[in-house]
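Recap slide: 3'(2'),5'-bisphosphate nucleotidase CysQ, sequence and predicted structure.
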Amino acid sequence: MSSIRNDHEVARDLATEAGQQLLRLRARHGFDEPEVLRTLGDRTSHEFLFSALGRLRPSDAVLSEEGIDDKARLGARRVWIIDPLDGTREFAEAGRTDWAVHVALWENGDLVAGAVALPAQGSTLSTVDPPWLPDERPADQRLRITASRTRPPDFVQRLATQLGAEIVPMGSAGAKICAVLLGIADIYVHAGGQYEWDNAAPVAVARAAGLHVSRIDGGIPTYNGVDPSLPDILVCRPELSGTLLASIRDVTDRDGTGPHVGG
């Protein structure tokens, strides 16, 4: 891998290659021991990405879900934020395609590049060539909200009821945000607790594609924080953001939970 590629290409190529390694691991190991497969998947992808970034961008820091959080990153100008295997549960289930690899770059206070590989779907969405967002969605189409297939939050159910929206169950956060990018869903909203690596890469791609991205109180999500937790996120088509933020405020005000809703 050439070290002269730009950061967008590095993110795309590393996410794609890590995904290919995960597919090969799946094929070799099979699904009879899901816990073992999950552990192998996390470790294999992390070791590849960490090593490749150390070779290609040796001066940059790395924040990985599977690595030790070296607080030296807080003084770094550039930090790669990676989730080597997002949707570990789905990865270890035969036939599931809703898992992903996330690679994002934070530089001088903001996300500047990112890629989300969807290996079992045969695609990588990245800031190299962000997905094209249709100008309009069909006016008569019911809104679709992506939510966890195993732990759908009560908050999202209440929001869907208020909006008359359909809930589309799905695995990883990356797959959910990519579903919005690809027009499979209109909204991804989460308020049950995440970390920066869960959404940095898909947020970078979503922003590049022109989607609205914010916290559920309308604030701007920030990265490379002392505490890498990022409890909530909203990703949607820009024309829906005002209605959604108002509905979120209404739902949280009525149940008394405030802006950071558990579930």
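Residues 258-263 have pLDDT under 50 and may be disordered.
The domain at 144-255 is CATH 3.40.190.80 (D-Maltodextrin-Binding Protein; domain 2).
(End of recap.)
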